[in-house]
Amino acid sequence: MGVVAAALTGCGAAPSHPAISSVTVLNVVPTRLRWVTFDGMRIPEADQGPHDPDSVHPTGFDHSPTGAALAAINATVRLSVANDRQWPDICRLNVAPGPGRDAFALDRVQVSLDRVVQPGEAEQVIGYRVRAYNGWGADVDIFTAAPDRSELVTYTQVAWTATNDDWGLVLPDPSDPGQPDRKTPIAAIPRGGVVLDTHYR
What we know:
Layout: H1 3-11, E1 34-38, E2 41-45, H2 65-81, H3 87-94, H4 99-108, E3 124-133, E4 137-145, E5 151-161, E6 166-169, E7 183-186, E8 194-195
Antiparallel strand pairs: 1-2, 3-4, 3-8, 4-5, 5-6, 5-7
């Protein structure tokens, strides 16, 4: 299992309580899509966020399904590969408060990760699907391609946090025994999903 394959599995939150959609179109292609590199990983950015750029923990995502999706991808990837100096601020600014964040911090402080992901070593983001959205929360499926070109989906949730006035990744509560698998293989990005990496496809 690659570096991000393992890390993403721990960062995603399974859709145990889907939000109720209150908008008509959940999956809109981001405008002026661009890619930034963080510790060897490519992360999508667009007009819908982040609006407050930072090389480690950018913030400011639109209060919309597209903003929620970009925030979910941003936080999941960055938290997965952040080194020992970077992860505390990412956790504070890009992750929603709660037992999942607390448990992650307790586990993360006990390990050391201080190397950049090398090319061909880990999964790469290729797209997403917003499955549910209601303004206060969203269920976002993140599609990735493994080094062997197999494709996977990581189920995540984000919540609109009043403290940051932004989306925060909801990490799974380890005390919840009902958490299903957060990462599964797929044959292809499902119909209705947004393809971000057109070069891959």
